[in-house]
5-methyltetrahydropteroyltriglutamate--homocysteine S-methyltransferase (Ogataea philodendri), 765 residues
Amino acid sequence: MVESSVLGFPRIGAFRELKKNTEAYWAGKIGADQLLAVGKEIREKNWKLQKEAGVDIIPSNDFSYYDQVLDLSLLFNVIPDRYTKFDLPQLDVLFAMGRGLQRKATESTKAVDVTALEMVKWFDSNYHYVRPTFSHSTEFKLNGQKPVDEYLEAKALGIETRPVLVGPVSYLYLGKPDKDSLDLKPISLLEKILPVYTEILQKLAAAGAKEVQIDEPTLVLDLPEEVQSAFKTAYDILAKAEGLPKLVLTTYFGDVTPNLAAIKNLPVSGFHFDFVRAPQQFDEVVSILSGEQTLSVGIVDGRNIWKNDFSKSIAFVKKAIEKVGAEKVVVATSSSLLHTPVDLENEKKLDAEIKNWFSFATQKLSEVVTIAKAVSGADVSSALEANAAAVKSRKESDLTNDAAVEARLSKIDKSLSTRKSPFPERLTVQKAKYNLPLFPTTTIGSFPQTKDIRINRNKFAKGEITAEQYEEFINSEIEKVVRFQEEVGLDVLVHGEPERNDMVQYFGEQLKGYAFTTNGWVQSYGSRYVRPPIIVGDVSRPKAMSVKESVYAQSLTKKPLKGMLTGPVTCLRWSFPRDDVSQKVQSLQLSLALRDEVNDLEAAGVTVIQVDEPAIREGLPLRAGQERSDYLEWAAESFRVATSGVRDDTQIHSHFCYSDLDPNHIKALDADVVSIEFSKKDDPKYIQEFSNYPNHIGLGLFDIHSPRIPSKEEFVARIGEILKVYPADKFWVNPDCGLKTRGWEETKASLTNMVDAAKFYREKY
Ligand code: MET
Ligand SMILES: [Zn+2]
């Protein structure tokens, strides 16, 4: 019997229980005990769900209160000193590293003021991990035994699990040196970290774990020589240790063949490969298996919501069986299911035909089980028939294909993707028109999404208030935000985005070709979850989407008001995309819809327009090469198609966040002004890279993921740092990103300090 396996299950709860309770804990409304109890409940539910679905290999330690990489940092004591000096309980150390902590002293506790560690994209997904941050003084040792505890917890429920750990090479390589140790290469710590890996693995084995899923996803990246060779060093050492469980080396999100030499002959009990993303690697990766090693065939998509095509998958798995034998093959999800929503059954509003095309995490459990059964010769014919019917219905549906969109797409040429004049000429007319001071200040768009906003949005959704009442409410929010910005003296204002639940979903809901869910949440980072809309067919814009709010906001002020749109690549990346047409086609369709919106904004008098592309970096193919250069080309083309229909004196902004951005990747967008998340970038070399960026730029000055308030002096110092390498006449002053997750109090204080610092330099220059 071929076994089925799941690499990880969403841990947020079917109804976002984890978020609600984590945030309640942060707000001091519930105690740690209650939060821990909720975590336990979620784990129990997830394990039982998988058991009941018939999954053979069920993961444990895939749960986390914040991020699984951060958990490992805590477990291995990779905790910079600044987090340990307050005598915080472990859970609070975890959250302080994840999101920063600022707290006044009480009778029994010290005052705390510490920024978060850097958070970056998990490969090309919209999940973010907290970057392990190493110094010369890092002393690896086990801090507790979370993986063992969770393994035993499942065992106590009568469920045998396979614990998951990020492997040593990936863990180190995904990290970075702390600011006090910039010369440190994390991978050089390999031999120092292996003893703690050994220790935790021994403990797992002692607790009864027979096998551990050891994730080495960095194998899908271009790896420097010393990292490639680290695999052999690491796994040879682990293989020599006494009393370890078997290790299944798990890769996902891409093709590992360029690094095949690094894992050939590794002493592990098996390998997992992602054949959804990279089916082409099959022959080569199978060729490295020794007679003993198992092959985990990742065939059920952990990154998207389309129903599996059983006939194709079964054929694929059969091919694997032929090569290595049924007893060695495992049918698996391509990656953790963390990236998919929990349960399609909770979608009550989806059109029945469309719903039948989807499969969420819970449904994917039965998919791996059914495929495993089918290739083992069990009779699953009714499941196969239903599946074939769903696949056919999607392919042939009118909802999928729109001839008018396809015709417009075929007419895109250079004239549609080039601004009328080059940047220097635009700059001259824009200077004259907007007359902004040196160090112009602005924000990235969203202002605090208060409880009041959420309540009113829900009321409107439920029909408890009328459209007029809702509009009135939104207008009052806009007015509040505009007045506030005038008071603190910001230069380019925004309307605050109170009408937007999410920057992609908001537009998705107004575009034809999209479907959206009511409960399809996916963790993006920490307690922030997103509900990606789903691109089901050709995309077009029936009517204006954002003009009303921006025009209203502009009517309230004489200062320039920035209209806010989400760019084509980000709309694509933060949606569940179609898998039947290319990403390029989907992106360009979106860009045409956005072009109409940009032009409508300009015509309505909103002539500073920001088109956010925070996801442009995450979409970058993981390896250098043709696919990557093609991507950069169509991504930039999409942005320009969206934004180049405007006059020279219309100022186009763009915004990027979440990851290490290469300035060369955004030059071709030709935006007049860009803002970039930057506050946690300490490496002067990185700042230097941006000094040649030709257009204007705002390097984000404070972390919006943290409630911490930087002082004016801190802003002054940071701006001063950047000014050492960065020219003052291109310098915009702004936060890292939008302020939607922040409260008003810290927003007011931080922005006031930021504007004061800008004024300080304005006088100085
Ligand atoms: C993740 S990028 C966010 C940009 C958006 N305009 C905002 O401020 O919320
Ligand atoms: Zn952002």
In short: The two ends are 75 Å apart (CA to CA). The longest helix spans residues 32-53. The mean pLDDT is 96.
